[in-house]
Amino acid sequence: MPERTYRAAIIGTGGIAHAHAKAVLASAERTLDSGTSDGRASDDGTSAGGASNGGASRGRAELVAVADVDAGRAREFAATYGIPHAYASAEELLREERLDVAHLCTPPQQHAPLALACLEAGVTALVEKPPTLSLAEFDTLIEAERRSAGHVATVLQHRFGAGAVRLRRLARAGELGRPLLATCLTQWYRDDDYYAVPWRGTWESEGGGPTMGHGIHQFDLLLSVLGPWREVTAVAARQARPVDTEDVSMALVTFESGATATVVNSVLSPRQTSELRFDFERATVEVEHLYGYTDDDWTVTPAPGHDGVSSLWKADPGSGSSGHGDWFTAVLDALDQGQAPPVTAADARRTMEFIAALYASAFTGERVRAGQITADSPFAHRMDGTGAPWRTT
Questions:
Q1: Tens digits of per-residue pLDDT, 303-359?
Q2: Where is the composition biased (Low complexity) (predicted)?
Q3: Burial 142-157 (b: 16+ CB within 10 A, else e)
Q4: 242 φψ region: left (φ > 0), alpha (ψ -120 to 50), beta (else)
Q5: Which residue from 92, 279, 370, 380 has the least number of CB within 10 angstroms?
């Protein structure tokens, strides 16, 4: 039997909320289908043992409530997933329900105020990307977390597929040799109709363009593998879409290890792809997918004389994907152990600082070092800082 069943709610019932609902409901199925687990967590916060012992029909978590400003949509969502209570506001939900975790699936500009409300209520906030609109806003969440019984964690689920977990494990064990270079591509296509939704395409509502809302999954995974970054040189442009933000950005990144990487974020690319390539001394490790990978999407090419790397990769099999299910399992594993759920505030801040540095470099034409964007920098308070070098729409 699991030690406890966590009471969960979903705030916001847009498209991504369905992935969250399915992840919570799957916790019951995993509990019933799984055997025993040692409950360990890996050093990057991902699950090392799967679900807890089986037997509870409610599973490790249960959805007890949902909220949406459109009350009818909240009721419809609740009926779809068998959720007992539906509310027309997050405030009412937090006032009426006893919760352990709240999944925040609203448009980005609502993430920070809702996360603060959750923390004030002692509820752990699981925040969809991007977690906030700015680095300063994120630091406000960190301060609030220190005063709360709850935690704040960002939903960056690409860290949790089996291939990514295996790659980090082999890299940290030194099995791949030194990291040398990497490429990180998020080349997607979003047409003008996509930006007809009122909250899309502005700095005030989304915080940025594809750098904030699309490429973040890929380069967050890049950062989780290569570790602390040292400096960024970047460009950003608005080429074609009717938006105030960029619709493409490119960056050259240097890491503390000495490795270098290129990062491309685009919503202008008719042949869509999401690609990561890591060139280590002893092997090239690659993954190509679109919106989520499985273990079959990864390839390993050993350097001459290092064929054993392939054997190490194959000897560590896994079937986990980069979906919300494996991420939520890792969240529950951490909560079971009294730990902050992944991706922690400290982890997510490094990614948010990277985004701010990318924009600062693109809009000032200068290299930006880690730690350079301090509290008094305009790029700490808005990702466009002193203003984008193009006219607003």
A1: 999 999 999 999 877 767 899 999 999 999 999 999 999 999 999 999 999 999 999
A2: 33-46
A3: eebbeebebbbbbbbb
A4: beta
A5: 92
